[in-house]
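Sat 14:20. Reprocessing the chain from the morning session after the first attempt stalled halfway. Input below, unchanged.
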Amino acid sequence: MAAKNATSSIPIVFTSAGEPAGAGLVASLARPGSNVTGLSLMSQGTDAKRLSLLRELLPSAQRIGELFDPANPFVRATRDEYEQVYQSLAMRPIFIEVTAAGELENAVAEVARRGGQALVVRSGLLFYPNRVTIMSAALRHALPTFVGGRPYLDAGALLSYSPDPTDQTRRFVAIIDKILRGSKPADLPVEQPTKFLLEINLKTAKALGLTIPQSVLLRADDVIQ
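Finished this time. Tokens:
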């Protein structure tokens, strides 16, 4: 957003925006309408798919904690939609607002105190660099954690469902190439991910005393043993 505010003429291509239209980066996904375009991390149904995987692994779970950074414009733009996904799966979200790294451990503890049966963490500038702190706290409180990115999984999350980073990089380079060949960002639709990776951390599953259904393991693109 800072780059967009700094110039209206130099082409800007973003690589990992959550909901760029809702956050004000572009006028719409189909027609960005300015000097900004790029790749969104979200596609229709991504959140529903991640939560449906949670339901598959934890069929009795009803109260799901989610850490919420109010400073993240992409999360703010999609919160209502995300809440509807929870409701469609008969889940009740427990949104815990976090504004600083020092609040993270208490935030995870609050999810457990309120009866949360799992934790959802969406990526962001506050959560990503503190992912080890979050995952360690979740394990201490026996909260299976569902995320969108391999680094969170390596830090101890149970399951990640996220866009394939190799495919995203290829498409990012293709957008840059189009601009260098004369295309205007305003005319290049924001691209949504089409390839996703399902990754599971069996070490975390064992620590939590969970058995991952074979039907899920067979669909996984990668498994941490």
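Residues 48 and 221 are 19 Å apart (CA to CA).
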